[in-house]
Fold each of these.
Amino acid sequence: MAGKIKIDVERCKGCGLCIGVCPKKNLDFAKETNKKGLSVVKQITGECSGCTLCAIICPEAVIEVYRDEPPKNSKTTPKTDLVEEKR
Amino acid sequence: MKTVFSKTPTLKECSTHYCPGCGHGIAHRLLAEVIDELDIRDKTIGIAPVGCAVLAYEYLDIDMIEVAHGRAPAVATGMKRTNPDKVIFSYQGDGDLAAIGTAEIMHAAHRGERITVIFINNAIFGMTGGQMAPTTMLGQVTATSPEGRQADGTGYPMQISEMLSIMPGVCYVERCAISGIAAIRNTKRAIKHAVELQMTNQPGLSLVEILSPCPTYWRMKPANAMKWIEDEMVKVFPLGKIKDAAAKK
């Protein structure tokens, strides 16, 4: 499943918390700054699964996350045997 | 593509005045998300503290007032008693709640006021320049304890949640942190539970303590500040549910 994020760079303060939590290592500090002169975060590889971890940790709530929906008539079912059941 | 995360409507579309990496932004968002999920935006009244979150009313699109330093539980008492159908919460920092406002929170808890308190603990006075707070940990360097806090002379870190949990007038106390994804999700659950207890008119005060980073006055990078909560702060302020009187036994 592919995802996409949108960062509102004008409200980003460049704390970098999202960089550490991205499992795809997609985020890093940009060399350029925003209008306030703050070093902001940008996407480097563009690879995104839409996991929303960056958005959950962002203190400024500047990240929006989108994700592809699985096709409705898809025959592939999620692999449930990978999840250990808790009793 | 489906939108899986966007800013919740209760959080206003503006930049906050907080330092980069400050935990207040995350706490505000969690609170706003809970308000929207429970659909109580029209009947929630919040109280902003004196401290870094003094302008919280600028960021949350609900009815909010600003009260004198530390007096939020006293004002919340009046608000809840005159408007019992409204959801009243106070949002207070450790300088507000644990220092100047200790009397107010203790007595509001002792009277069993049916309010919700969000207590942000960052172990320091952030707004005034990083001075030692009652919650500052032993050995922690601040502007007024340059050699680290010493128990001999300045005492020990104050554990408000444990103190309140022994009071019969308190129905729910939980200590959470916003030091990582799992912790943030857990904090949201705790805030939601505390608000729901008030909505179902459970007798007593509900309080959620949130360990929050202050990268500026801890003199750390934001990511290191998050790690410091997990490594050091939780040793003094252990996480978890301290009291839940309404839980099924």
Amino acid sequence: MATQTAVAKLNVKNEERSAGESLTKLALRRLRRDRLTLVALTVLGILTLLSVGAPFITDLLGVSYTRTNADATFLPIGAPGHILGTDDLGRDHLARLLFAGQVSLSVGFLAAALSLSIGVSLGITTGYFGGVMDDFVNWLIATLTSIPQLFLLLIVAAVLSPTASTLIIVLGLLGWTGTTRLVRGETLSLREREYVVSARAIGASPIRIMFVHILPNLFSIIVITLAIDIGTLILVEAALSFLGLGIKPPEPSWGNMLTNAQTFFTKGAHLVVMPGLLIFITVLCLYVIGDGIRDAFDPTAKD
Amino acid sequence: MKISTKFLLSGVLVVVLALMAAPLAAQDGPEGGVIIEGNLGGDPATFSPIIASDTASSRITEFLFPDLLSVDPSQAIIVPREGNPLASSAVVDSWDINEDGTVYTFNMRQDMVWSDGTPITSADVVYVWDAAVAGQEGIVDTPLSFIVAAPGEETGILDVQAVDDFTFEVTFASSACDALFDAASLEPVPSHIYPEDLSLINDFEENLNPTVTANVFSFGEFRPGEQVSLLADQNYIDADLGFVNLDGYIYRNVPDLNVIVEQYLAGELSVVDNPNVARRADIRADEGSQVYSYPGDRWDYLAFNLADPTNPQNGLDADGNAIDQGNHPLFGDVRVRQAIARAINVDAIIDAAVFGEGSRMTAHLIPASWAYHTELPPIAFDPEMAAEMLAEAGWADADGNGVLEATEDALYADAGTEFVFTLYTNEGNTRRTAMGTLVQDQLSQVGIQVDFQTIDFNTLLDIMDSQTFDTLILGWRNGYPDRPDSTQLFTPASDVVGSGSNFTSFNNAEFTSLNEQAQFVPGCDPAERAEFYFQMQEIMQEELPYVWMFAQDGMYAARTEVNGFDPFPAQLYWNIDTWSVRSAE
Amino acid sequence: MVKYTLRRLLQGIPTFFGITILSYLLMTAAPGGPVAALTFGPNVSPQDRQQLAARLGVNDPLPIQYLRWLLGDDWMRWDSDGDGIADSSFLIPLDADGDGEPEPPGVRQGVLRGDFGRSFFYRRDVASMIGERVAATMELGASALLLGLSVGVPIGIVAAVTRGSRFDTATRVMAVMFQAIPVFWLGLLLIMLFGSALPRALGLDSPILPMGGRCPPVLIGGCPPIYGRIEYLILPTFVLATGAIAIYSRYIRASMLDVMSQDYMRTAHSKGLKGRSVWFRHGARNALIPLATFLGPAITGLLGGAAITETIFSWPGLGRFAVEAVRAQDFPIVMAVVIITAIATLLGYILSDILYALIDPRIRFD
């Protein structure tokens, strides 16, 4: 909520700028100097690479995320053959964290991408055309935001018994309201701008106007929302897991690994700490990146 | 409004009573203290013994209302109170049985009164029976209606009649040895204050604020979402010390399984009942704890669907004749089940899934049962033998992909079918998730591919009842006192699509007949009955409708400040009237 | 103003139907159903289940179920000759479970007449069960909101004024950290820290702060007034407020930066009003205006977000209650909580708008 309003503020400012190009260049230059954001980007990149490369890494290390071993449970970090130790069933903890990373990151990323696409397309069309469709979408937004998100998710999760793919769809379908509002407001003001009015006057089709004249101006909102939404969705998945309605084991996710390890902090603290830490670091990086991009695009900031 | 005023008044009254009792007790009096137990589940739904069906409600009603029959906690069997020094407090002293064994005449004590001074009489028992009957018609929300004999069935109660104020007669549908269990459910309520119109029981105001009780405790107050408190009832007639030693008991909601252990370790709770297995080592290591473990009454199993999952059928038709069940392509063949039972390393599962806090099952009865077959060794883990048995049953990995395929020799599977099946368990249960994961991995090593899924509990029950599953992991909890009867779980009469508990469609004529014979042993001598149960266990180890896993050990723990903590299996509070809590000096 | 409020309330009506129909559809689509959940056990016969389903009305077509919930069923099946047995019915059959006897007459009044129905599991009037828990939820929600605002707002303002300073960076990282920590993790750590680790380190034999609950575990006398049990509020409030602190500080920082770039502020500054005091005196007040829009969403957020905190800290609130009800498929409870939070949110939005207009003269009601 806060970020979105803050984003709106930033874009009100954007109206004052002369050319989009130069601001993007300026923003990139600022980003290159923003060490915090760069560190966050690097860390997130490494985590993503590790997760994507999970099958190769585990092959290389000769471990498996499904192979159990009742004689080697709760091995600590640094145990021979298991860099990050083993879990309650003797499975390699590093392997599980990597494969869980695949699940958690893709749930966060894909669901955010889905909700963003819905949000942006609905926001642009309703903002541009208005009318009955606008009223309907507004009503839908009012309805969806009046039910606490967690309840809604709980009810839907109970209906669907989520796997990674259903969870992505559910989170994506429920998360678009904020973005729509934001984009709709932005479009409303953009459509009255001179260059849009003149494009319309020379007969450009609405589709063309929306894609060519309006969408590029939403770039910064989209990037910021994406970064912050991914982080939030990873946390939502963890919260759902805690309530027993997240990704179902044995398919690992950071959220369900953390929940499952709750009772193990005296037996193997690394099982609690590691997934929690990974969630924390990932979300931290994403939020820092979101903030960094916002600041980079902020025209009021001094160089 | 009315209720809350009454609530308040009764609270004041109890405080006043407690204050009055205090000086009296000062001479050889109660040492006092309050037991605080954590309640991991939700609020009790009711404090009426007629309506109570959830664990939390029963915990409270057992402290407030008297039992009908005595139990000897050291042996976990129902005994006459008369002549048994260890027998628990109950309103019935003794009983006589008629010649054909179907009519029991119960003799009640005449010295027991409700907390308002009214004597406890046979009318209080008959009232509960009437409520159970009304429950069967859907008028009263009571779990007791199962004791009412269904037409044509051999179990249950036909009628309960008062002979005089302190004698009543119960007519059973048959002379089955387990008849007493049904009778024991008729725990009396103060019928003189209960509504005459039984349909009013559901909303009776005493359900949430029981003012008239008769046991160790009387009702304190109920703070929804927080706690239920009970106060020592110094009029309790069977107090061993002559008085109830505690001041009271609090059942406090702690909905997180970790927090409950943390609160206990920090001394905020005085007792925990069956804490999470992963945290038991911490409790054992805690110097401030007294710990009691026992072979448990909850057992987890892996069930096979023996029948054709695409065409579920009831076990018997309306005339009681067996209906052909078809065969499950994989598990219809008993050799396959036997091979799987040998390919699963149950001891390793006990170590990993419950941290060793479990006792191996050899067949369908828990090790704590009086009918448990101690001579029967468990099936040994033997993957080589399992592989051989699978080969013999017509399964071989011809294409070398690591998964077995059916050959022409396979009994019910088409040649070329891969040995792949689904294993379900309910989500949110760490223990069963671990079991499933281990089974999946262990079976993959003999060429069996398991698609293991954790799903919503209600969905799982639906799939289970509809008998369309391949395999599933779930658990049963034995009642107390133990009753080794298998009618519900393993006889064709209970194989009812959509509701029966014999969802594996197990049907073994010899087993069913032995189960029947064990019920009708003349004189019902446990040793004689056990002989039948031993034979049944031998059959079950061969037939394997379930892979026998383990019974999770029970654990009670209390802070060292708690005096009198001396449980029996599944009987934590049998002597709570003598408990006290040493206050910290 | 009155007209505006009325219009907003009228606009709320379609939203109300949207919320209730959506929730109803979703809930009844859940597999298993309440009857399976209520009757798990070897002793239950198929007839018992049929009876229960008929009594709960869960086998009726969805529109009927929704209507019953909305308008009651005393007009669907009733007793016209006063003998206590239903003899007339509309929309639903007289004999729902097919046992040859009519079901009892309908007694439900429906939500629109203030009857939220009975809980399937507790078999009690839902309205009174909600009533028992509202106070606890509001207590925790209000204190978290208060703490969130009183810490988040100053941090946000100072961070904006000292933009780029160490304080700014530190508080921004802290805000992100607070948002990134899974709530149940933080809660459990705090419980262990204040319940056992710290007392052990300090040689105390009892926890420094209570490890859960809302009131002391006393036998009788109920819950003391709030000032007598502040210690029970500290940890859950803190955990619930961490997210709020993070959100508010970031929000206020952005809003303040915005205000600071306004012309009148620059003018004030250039006219010789020295130092940072001008930012605080003139800027902060304007930066707080948009906060008014926060009330509505804050209410929903605190109610929904409290479910996990309430579970970890054994707090007897609505969030935990609703989560338990969703799990048990206790429709009437879930529906009631959804309605109540939705209405609270709606009122919150209206209140926000009105406040906003009162504070900011640029906004007109029309």
